[in-house]
Amino acid sequence: MDRNIRSNGPCADHKTIIRILLSRADTLSMIGRFQKSLDDTRKALAISRAMNDREKEIDSLLWEGHAYLKLSDFDGTISSSQQALELSLAEEYLEGQTQAFYNLGRAHMSKGDDTLALEYMGRTQETAKKTGNNEVLGDTLSDMGLLYKSMGEYPQAVECLAQALGLSRQTGDRHNQAGCLNNLGLIQSARGDNEQARENYESSLSICREIGDVCGQASVLNNIGAILHLRGNLDGAQQYLLQSLKIRERTGDLFGQAIILGNLGLQELSRGNFQSSFDFLNRTLLIREKIGDRKGQASTLNNIGRLLLKQHQPGRASGYLERALVLAQELGDRELNSRISLARSELRLEQKNLPEALKVLEETRQQMEMLGWKQGQADCWLLWGRVCTAQQDWHEAEAKFKEAIALNEILKNDRSLAETCLEYGRMLKNSGEERPAAELLGRAQDLFLRLNLPERAEQAKNI
Fold first, then answer.
1. Is a pLDDT exceeding 80 seen at residue 278?
2. Quick one: which of 44, 116, 29, 42 has its CA closest to 78?
C-alpha cells in the first residue's frame, strides 16, 4: 500500500519498520495467527502516528481492520476502516479508499447486511478500476458473486465469479483463484451440480495447501463436508467438518466456528440425535449473536425450529421460526427466506392446518424455482407429498413423491431419497397398496443401512 502522498517529514527508518510489521501481520494472518497479526498492526499504527506519517497511518488502519475481520470483530473492522477512509479522502489517496471500501463491504457482508455490503463493493470496484488494482478488483468480484447468490441472482453471481477467476489467473493471484473456485462451488452445489462443485472445491483446496492458506483450507473442508452430508455420507462429512473446526478453533475464527458447529448440528439432526443437535445449534446461535452475524442468526433459528418440528413441538418451533423470518425479511435474503418458508410449511402441517400448509408450499415452490435451487425443490415436493397424505389425497401425494424421488436421484442425495421412499411407502401402505409399499420401504431400508443409520432402517422395516 506504499504510495506517494503527504507526510510531515518522517525518516526512512520508521517506514522500514512499519513495512516489516505489516508484512509480518499479513503472513501471520495467512497462517491463522490473527491476534498476533492484530498486535503487529497496532504497533505499526502507533509508530505511524508518533511520526505523523499519514500514509503509514492509513496502511496500518487498513491492516488493523483486516485483522479485526479475521477475529470476527466486525464493528472493529468498520471503525478502523472508516478512519482509514476519512484520511484517504482527505489525502486524495485512491488506493487507501479502495481498500477501505473493500474492508467495509466485507464487514457488512459478514454481519448479513447484503444491500450495504453490495454498495461498498460497488464503490470498491469503481476505485479499483481507476487505480488498476486488479488484485482487489478480483477479490471484490468474487465477494459480489456470493452477495448475488444470497439475493437469488445466480446468473449475476456466476458472471462476477467468472470475471474474478479470469483476473486472478491473469494476475497470478493464487489466493483469489482459490477463493473464486470455492465460491463457484457454493453456487453449483445450490443449483444441484454437486459433481462440478466437488471438483472446484478440490482444486481450491489444492491451491490453499500449496500457498499455505489455512483459513481457505478450513472454508473448503467445510464445503466438501456439506456436499457429503447432502449425499448422505454422514461419516465422511463429519471427518471434513472436524478438520475444518480444528483449524477454526486454532485460529480463533469465531465466524468460521459458528458455521462448522451449525453444520455438525445438522448432521446430528440427520442422525436423529436431537439433544446433541440442539446443543450444537445453540452454541452456534450464541456465537452468531456475540459477533453480530444477523444472517447466521436467522439461519440458525430456522434450523432450531426445524429440529423442534422433528420432535413434534410446534409451539416452541413457531417462536424460533418467527424470529428467523423477521431477520430474513429485514436482510432481504431470498435464499434464506425460501428455507424459512419451507420450515413454516412444515409447521402448518404439524399444526394440522393443511390448507395453510399448501398455500405456503405453493409460494415456497415458486421461490425455489426462481432461485433454481434443486435440492430445495426436492424438499418441497417431499413435504407436499406428506401434506397430501394427511389429506388422504393418495393420487396427488403419489405425484409429489415421484417428483421428489426424480430430483433426488439426479442430485444423488441418498439421504433425502431414503426419507422420500419411506414417506411414499408409508402413504401407499395406508392407502392399501401393500406390494408397492413394501418395495419402497425396502429401498428406504437399504439406503438407510448404506448411510449407517440403523435406527431409521429399522423404522422403515417396521412400518
1. yes
2. 116
